[in-house]
Request: fold
Amino acid sequence: MSIATTEVPAFILNAKHRCDSCSSSRAYVATVLSSSPALPNGGELLFCAHCFRKHAEALLPLLSAIVDETAQLVEHVRDDKHL
Reply:
């Protein structure tokens, strides 16, 4: 018995990556869309934390992979000695 695996692309999100929904915020979530008749090759979308939470319910059934780096937002706050 063989198990089919899907390779998840290696995402390294940085300050240059912008949200595909609002285009003004830094992207912290990378998604890979499953292939469908409308998108035979699938696709990728990047989201800021806010936009991903806003659209997650509709997106989740369409995704084959999610790379969620929103934990970095909390890490930055913890590392800030002024708080």
